[in-house]
Write a structure and sequence with these properties.
By secondary structure, the chain is an all-alpha fold. It has one domain. The chain is 72% helix and 0% strand. α1 packs parallel to α4 and α5 runs antiparallel to α7.
């Protein structure tokens, strides 16, 4: 039974992500500038104007997730990591296509937290990076570090974004 649930969870996360974004309305009905701050639009202009260290970080992150494609057929942690990466992309694209949601950096951070947490949980509980010496062990250590480092920024940005769209105003 647990295996069947695990196979359905990625689809459930995608549906919940798209539905959850659909409930956001008036708080986002304003003009935003491009940038990488939590309440700035994360678009091509923003990506072109980020500091060099952020561009390098984005490249490392994309390479780490893309390398996981090598292991998706044999390793569940890789499936969750790559699936989470694709889930963020799919939800961001669908939310822009199906709704008028502005792609704020805080929304992307929230999607990272939602979609990457299952992979991080598996990586930290199973610790494949400590159990063997292989290319997979190296990749699992790298992707664990990538997700953890990303979460340092994502938790803050997602909190600011949620505070903003809820209208509470404590953080934004």
């Amino acid at each position: 039974m647990a295996v069947g649930v695990c196979r359905r969870l990625p689809g459930v996360f995608l549906v919940l992500g798209v539905l959850g974004i659909g409930f956001v309305d008036a708080a986002l009905a304003q003009d935003y500038e491009s940038g990488h701050g939590a309440l700035q639009v994360w678009d091509a202009e923003a990506r072109a104007n980020v500091p060099l260290w952020v561009r390098v970080w984005l490249s490392i992150m994309q390479l780490a997730f893309a390398t996981g494609l090598v292991f998706v057929w044999w390793r569940v942690e890789a499936r969750w990591a790559v699936g989470g990466f694709l889930g963020v992309f799919a939800t961001a694209v669908l939310s822009q296509t199906l709704t008028d949601i502005v792609p704020l950096a805080g929304l992307i951070a929230l999607l990272h937290l939602i979609y990457w947490s299952p992979a991080l949980y598996l990586l930290l509980t199973r610790r494949p990076f400590l159990k063997e010496r292989s290319a997979y062990a190296v990749w699992s250590a790298v992707i664990t570090c990538v997700i953890l480092f990303s979460f340092i920024f994502d938790i803050r940005d997602a909190a600011i974004y949620l505070d903003h769209i809820s209208g509470i105003g404590l953080l934004s």
